C-alpha cells in the first residue's frame, strides 16, 4: 500500500473513529433507516461479482465503476479491509433501489459523465484504468476540474460517492455493506447494544464488554426471547 493510500484510509477511518471510540452509534446508519424492505442477510451478498450480475439498480458496467471508485477511496491491504472487502458496492446498489431512489438520476448522469471524462483522458472506462490514473481522475473530480460534468457537478459527484462509501463501510451490515463488520472492526465499534453505562459513554477506549453484533442478529435474539 502506498503512502497516498494509507492517508486516504486514515481520513475515512478517522471520520468515524471518534463516535466509535465514545461507544456512540455510527451516524451513517441512520441515513438508510427506510431501507428495511430490501435488507440482505447479515454481511450482504457473497461477492462483488454476484452483486454486479444481480444488481438492484446498477448494470454490470456501472457496478464495476462504482466498485473500483470506492476501492480507490478506501483501498484494501493485507490485514486491512477495504471497500471491496466490506461490500460497499452492494450497500450503494441496494440504497439506490430503496431509500435513495431520489438519487438515481444523479448517479446515472454522474456515471455517464465519469465515463466520458475517462474515455477522453485515457481512452478507457474508469474500472480499466491503472490505480494511478484512477487516482488522477478522482482528484480531478474533487477539484472540480473534470469538464465532462455539468449536472451533477464533478465535486458533488465525488462527495456523494465518498459519503456513500463511508456509509457502506460503517453502517450496520443489515443494509448490505460492512461485511463481516469490516468497518466496525477498524474503529472498534461494538455494534448494537441494549445499553451503555455512563462510564462507557465517557470512555474513549474501544468498547469490549460484549461481542460485536448488528441489528439483524439483535432482532433474532429478541424474537427468541419473546
Structure description:
The chain is mostly helical. It has one domain (3-225). It has ten helices and no strands.
Observed structural traits:
226 residues, 10 helices, 0% strand, mainly alpha, single chain
Order of helices and strands: HHHHHHHHHH
Q: What share of the residues lie within helices?
A: 40-55%
Count structural domains: 1
Main β sheet profile: none
Q: What gap, in angstroms, lies between the N and C termini?
A: 48 Å
Amount of beta strand:
under 5%
Low-confidence parts: 18-54
Brief overview:
It is built from ten helices and no strands.
Write the layout of secondary structure elements.
Layout (H helix, E strand, L loop, with lengths): L2 H19 L26 H6 L6 H14 L14 H9 L7 H19 L8 H12 L11 H17 L11 H6 L10 H5 L12 H11 L1
